[in-house]
Automatic annotation (TrEMBL):
Residues 5-141 form the PhnB-like domain. It comes from Sinomicrobium pectinilyticum. CDD domains: PhnB_like. This is VOC family protein. It holds the Pfam family 3-dmu-9_3-mt. Gene3D superfamilies: 2,3-Dihydroxybiphenyl 1,2-Dioxygenase, domain 1.
């Protein structure tokens, strides 16, 4: 496995939170702040309001040499009714070394739990999936090959 990272979900507060974390930990955002309007068009995404388009779609702040703090503003319509509340807003993100490793871990972690997003190709990853295990822990699995996070 390449890395274990932390992914935080917010409702409209990601930019403020990450500016705060940057002031605490230092460093620079990897690739800047990506807003939903910056995402490539996708048939999977429903139309977004102008306010939603300006929310943070993804931000990454390196914490030392081997960890990344990542975050997003959750848009309920994109997450099929998912409502962010304290307790479900933190995910453990595994960056795997291969598609096979992602599939193995995802299969085992989601067994007896709940699949939030099936493991599939996305514009940022060869394979990405999200699930909640049978103990209520939220996981995201990424195989990005050499793509930035």
């Amino acid at each position: 496995m390449k890395a274990v990272n932390i992914y935080l979900n917010f409702e409209g507060k990601t930019e403020a939170a990450f500016n705060f974390y940057q002031s605490v930990f230092g460093g620079e955002f990897m690739g800047g702040i990506m807003r939903y309007k910056d995402f490539p068009p996708s048939e999977e995404f429903p139309p977004l309001s102008e306010a939603e388009k300006n929310l943070v779609g993804h931000v990454s702040l390196p914490l030392g040499d081997h960890s990344i703090l990542m975050g997003t503003d959750v848009v309920e319509s994109l997450c099929k009714g998912h409502k962010t509340v304290m307790g479900n807003n933190v995910h453990i993100t595994l960056e795997t070394d291969s598609v096979e490793e992602a599939e193995t871990f995802f299969g085992k972690l989601s067994e007896g739990g709940h699949t939030v997003m099936p493991l599939e190709k996305t514009f940022w990853a060869e394979k990405y999936g999200a699930c909640t295990d049978k103990f209520g822990v939220h996981w995201q699995l990424n195989y990005t090959r050499n793509k930035a996070q």
